[in-house]
TrEMBL record:
Protein name: NADPH-dependent FMN reductase
Pfam families assigned: Flavodoxin_2
Superkingdom per UniProt: Bacteria
Ranges where the Flavodoxin-like fold domain occurs: 2-165
Cross-referenced InterPro entries: Flavodoxin_fold, Flavoprotein-like_sf, FMN-dep_NADH:Q_OxRdtase_AzoR1
SUPFAM superfamilies the UniProt entry points to: Flavoproteins (SSF52218)
Length: 188
């Protein structure tokens, strides 16, 4: 049995980011077994829990300020794989993802070694810019962060030119690529 956590970082359901995340999930299901578990976390729900940089999380292995955050961190600790899905906001992942990632100090021991090394991940990001793929930079940055935690990024998908709500629905190539990323999460 494989357990996957999907971090959905868009505030809009059925947005371009959400549609890509759903396609990745379909790909995971297509290659998995019936007892696999896929849990989708809506990071908008955590927007009020901003890290206060107390630093106690590294020793504790959890956020001591917000049990709601610790619950989501525990989901990642128990997972075999992670899917990160984010829109691009000002050359970076959405604030919802960043707020959650600021709590990832709990994944580090006091000596800065990772508590979650060995997991696998895929990343999808999209931006509205029709000429420059700003999502590519976001994916590259997230790969570096995951690598620091000892997580292998199996692949990423960066899509440009999807400014309109649900515009990705007409982009069969990107949707197919997202599905293939899901298939690859545990097979590549």
């Amino acid at each position: 049995m494989k357990r996957t956590v999907v971090l959905m970082a868009s505030p809009r359901l059925q947005s371009n980011t959400d549609l890509l995340a759903n396609k990745v999930m379909e790909g995971i299901r297509a290659t998995g077994s019936p007892d696999d578990v896929i849990e989708k976390v809506d990071l908008v729900e955590l927007q009020d829990y901003v890290c206060c940089a107390c630093g106690r999380c590294r020793a504790a292995g959890e956020c001591l300020q917000f049990p709601q955050v610790t619950e989501k961190l525990e989901m990642i600790k128990k997972a075999d794989g992670i899917v990160i899905a984010t829109p691009v906001w000002w050359l970076a992942p959405s604030s919802y993802l960043k707020i959650f990632m600021d709590h990832w100090g709990a994944f580090l021991r006091p000596d800065y070694t990772s508590r979650i090394a060995g997991k696998r991940a895929v990343i999808v990001a999209c931006c509205g810019n029709p000429t420059e793929n700003l999502a590519e930079k976001v994916c590259d940055d997230l790969v570096k962060i995951l690598s620091f935690l000892g997580i292998k990024t199996v692949g990423s998908l960066s899509v440009k030119g999807v400014a309109d709500y649900a515009a990705i629905a007409g982009d069969t190539q990107s949707l197919d690529s997202a599905f293939q990323l899901g298939e690859a999460l545990y097979t590549r």
